[in-house]
Specification:
This is MFS family arabinose efflux permease. It is found in: Cell membrane. Pfam families: MFS_1. By secondary structure, the chain is mainly α. It has two domains: about 180 residues, Growth Hormone, Chain: A; about 190 residues, MFS general substrate transporter like domains (Growth Hormone, Chain: A). The chain is about 75% helix and about 0% strand. Helix 5 packs across helix 7, helix 12 packs antiparallel against helix 17 and helix 12 runs antiparallel to helix 19. The longest helix is centred in the middle third of the chain and has 29 residues. The N terminus is likely disordered.
């Protein structure tokens, strides 16, 4: 049941054929490249805190605002940007946001002082929130219904690829050349993506503009509410623990510091695989897949204090963690599409806002726990949040649209 009357469906792909799916593959790939670039831009400063702080005379703690600010701004921009642009063609919107990303990274590379660099990162957050809010549900408008889960998995494959390749390569460029060159390279790549989107995306008319009333109306839909709650709990739980996975590997599993980096690379590779496994699974059993992911995450982190106290156990659980969490974005975005098939963009905007906000809250909660309790405390916190998310997902078991 929903608290709002039925609304016209989102504009669909022009024809529902396998030929359409094939012809739209380059467009789907261009959007995936866009998500890759956005996540890389959001997280790249993690590897550049020291050189930026040294060059602009700020502490590494203050330099951390380069990560926090765009995440918070993205959470606000996700619902606000679609409302502000009204009926603007979504192809034009995505191109414009990628143009903003180009300018923001160029401004970051040229910033003479830290306040201007943070201001440039605000623009990055606007681009991230607005782009992701539209791109997350774009598969339903580019390919036939049968191909939507796979296309969604491809689009969100850019997220995992950014963690595995984008951020490490950008950090390496910053180390070998300078942090300004790293930001400049991101700006150049954003310009490439801009032209790819312009050339490959079809017109994406917005027949029904997003409004604040309709955004609020989506929360009257039980399936959407469950998806939002599950997203909040899962993402907060994950980042509360994963932010401190380095200390967990070192102090609990006894793994030498020099191996932490390669192991995190393995976590990312497992995540890419998990993304596509989940994409195939949700096409058949959406509710069971999301429930299985949630329970598997809970079991994995709760086992860490017991089975992860050796090197072998810690590595095995880390790989499982990466594989399972890799399916979160694809499965939850598909959940939102299925929960609100007549308002995909509105549901996606809410989802992206909660997702980005949860990243910051998770890291904050994890830091608070680490300071107050033993390291195992963040694993217990994450496990408890995953179990609560599992209960929320289980409560929607009778919703036919989510099966």
């Amino acid at each position: 049941m929903t608290a709002t009357p039925p609304m016209p469906a989102e504009p669909a792909a022009p024809t529902q054929t396998a030929g359409t799916a094939r012809s739209r593959r380059p467009a789907v790939s261009a959007v995936a490249f866009g998500t890759f670039l956005l996540v890389t831009a959001e997280q790249l400063p993690i590897g550049l805190l020291a050189p930026v702080g040294s060059a602009l005379s700020v502490s590494e703690g203050a330099a951390g605002l380069m990560v926090t600010v765009p995440s918070v701004v993205a959470a606000v921009a996700a619902p606000v940007v679609p409302v502000l642009v009204g009926r603007l063609d979504r192809r034009i919107l995505l191109v414009a946001l990628m143009g903003l990303m180009t300018l923001a990274n160029a401004a970051s590379a040229l910033a003479p002082d830290y306040p201007l660099l943070v201001a440039a990162r605000v623009l990055v957050g606007v681009a991230i929130g607005g782009f992701w809010a539209v791109a997350g549900g774009l598969a339903v408008r580019l390919v036939p219904a049968a191909h939507v889960p796979r296309a969604t998995a491809i689009i969100f494959g850019g997220v995992g690829a950014a963690n595995v390749f984008g951020v490490p390569i950008g950090t390496m460029i910053g180390g070998l050349a300078s942090w300004r060159i790293a930001f400049g390279a991101l700006g150049a790549l954003a310009l490439v993506v801009l032209f790819a989107l312009l050339a490959l995306l079809p017109p994406l008319a917005a027949d029904r503009p997003v409004s604040l009333r309709r955004l609020a109306g989506r929360l009257g839909d039980r399936g959407v509410r469950v998806g939002i709650v599950a997203t909040f709990l899962i993402v907060t739980g994950h980042f509360s623990a994963y932010t401190f996975v380095g200390p967990v590997l070192r102090d609990l599993s006894g793994i030498d510091e020099q191996f932490v980096g390669p192991l995190l690379f393995g976590f990312g590779v497992a995540g890419i695989a998990g993304n596509f496994v989940a994409g195939a699974a949700v096409a058949r059993r959406l509710h069971r897949t999301v429930l299985a992911i949630t329970v598997a995450l809970a079991v994995t982190v709760l086992l860490y204090p017991v089975a992860g106290v050796t090197g072998v156990g810690g590595v095995a659980l880390l790989v499982v963690w990466g594989l399972v969490y890799g399916g979160v974005s694809t499965s939850l975005q598909t959940w939102m599409i299925k929960a609100a098939p007549q308002a995909v963009e509105e549901a996606s905007a809410l989802w992206v806002a909660v997702f980005n906000l949860s990243i910051g809250l998770g890291a904050l909660a994890g830091g608070t726990i680490v300071d107050a309790l033993p390291l195992r405390g963040i694993l217990w916190l994450a496990g408890a949040l995953f179990l609560l998310a599992g209960l929320a997902v289980w409560s929607a078991r009778r919703n036919e649209s989510l099966r």
